[in-house]
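Can anyone check this?
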Amino acid sequence: MPYTVAPTIRWSVEPARRPGTPLVVALHGRGADEASFAQLAPHLPQGATAAFVRAPLAEGAGYAWFANRGIGRPLPDSIAATADWLFGWLDIEAAGHTSVSLLGFSGGMAMAGGLLLARPERFAAAVLLSGTLPWDAGLPEEPGRLAGVPVFWGRDDADPVIPAGLVARTGEWLREKSGARLAERRYPGLGHGIALPELADASDFLQDVWSAPGRQ
């Protein structure tokens, strides 16, 4: 079912400072919202614009990006509807920015991965945290799909929330099949969360991507 209402967004900077900056589309976890996720803004690269987007489906006290068949297993029609909704917004918003990158945590990682698999050419980079790619959701996943796209993948091997089989499948595909320029980082003791050292590494990663010739 298509969404007709524009996304609700918490911006990291006021409108006058957004044009001509790299845009980071930040996607929160399942059951959270854009306001809580916007607490990450001070730890993201200075000089960028972060758009903390609210997911479209009510879920408990927060929101979700898609209906699913279990953790990390989106229903194809549901994730496709959300992707179309977000791409419709980006078709307008991206024009004012030098590039668009993704940042997703947990369920937001699955959604960010869905956007990346659907249209990898739209994104300068992706930061994927504590989650899985959206497998068996009708998205392209052929070898080389992310050829040349810089991808940061951060997690704890002992994450108690994301099924280990999905994490293993994600790792195998990102390392061996995707063609992405993968920066993989592990944070023992993190559990299912986000830590300041991880954010520092992700911020450095994005700055390096944007500073590369032709990337910003």
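Reply from J.R.: I decoded it. DSSP finds five helices and nine strands in the chain.
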